[in-house]
Amino acid sequence: MADEPSLGELGRLIQALRGDIRDDMAGINARLDRMVSNDVYTVEKAGLVKEIADVAKVVEGLQAQRERDAERVTQTRRWMVASVIVPLIGIVLPLIVMLRGAGA
């Protein structure tokens, strides 16, 4: 009978085990308090997806505006060449030819 624990020892072991279980449960509860519920997660995720879609629309709009601006610059350059530079060459070139002919 010397190998068997006494009732006092069993009582202390049971109390220690209850304390360990209580500590473990407190740790689990503390971790659960930091967790987000599934409903909140779903709502937050849906909001995030909507924000990303809104940003994508803005980026697409900016890209379209950039393309329109590039086309406008190209058209302005074409206008400058057709309306200013070509007529200017048409005026200056005959003057140069005339001045060279007069100088010879």
Entry keywords:
mainly alpha, about 100 residues
Which SSEs are present, and which pair or pack?
Layout: H1 7-34, H2 38-103
Question: Biggest sheet: strands, sense, closure?
Answer: none
Extended strand count: 0
Helix content: over 70%
Helical segment tally? 2
Rg is: 43 Å
Mean pLDDT: 90
General description of the model:
This protein has 104 residues and is mostly helical. It has helices at residues 7-34, 38-103. The longest helix has 66 residues, at 38-103. The protein is rod-shaped, with a radius of gyration of 43 Å. 0% of the residues are buried.
Q: Could you write a compact summary of the structure shown?
A:
The protein is mainly α.
